[in-house]
From TrEMBL:
Pfam families: Con-6 (PF10346). InterPro entries: Conidiation-specific_6, UPF0654_domain. Residues 83-92 have a biased composition (Acidic residues). One of its GO terms (cellular component) is cytoplasm. Residues 1-33, 46-92 are annotated as: Disordered. This is Conidiation protein 6.
Length: 92
């Protein structure tokens, strides 16, 4: 298994170590930072995925939208809870 086959998390750990190592040259640290930024962007966006904060914002908007059905609001609330958020309880 070559370094190209390593999981992204393992590569990221190596780049973080290179950045904090005083024996690594400036250009190597810059390259490590570029790679970390690239991996962070890939991890955030993923293939076809939306940034998590945008999804949470949309779900919260669905809860307060008066045009949304009760079923839609319930599903949005459940999805937010599964993402670790505590959605506001409805005020009826």
């Amino acid at each position: 298994m070559g370094s190209d086959d390593a999981p992204i998390e393992h590569k990221a750990r190596g780049y973080k170590a290179a950045i904090s190592n005083p024996h690594v040259s400036g250009p190597a640290k810059a390259h490590a930072q570029q790679e970390l930024d690239r991996y962070d962007l890939e991890k955030t966006l993923g293939e076809g995925e939306k940034p998590v904060e945008n999804v949470k914002s949309g779900l919260k908007a669905a809860l307060s939208n008066p045009n949304n059905t009760e079923m839609g609001k319930m599903k949005a609330r459940q999805k937010l809870e599964s993402m670790g958020e505590e959605p506001e309880q409805p005020v009826d």
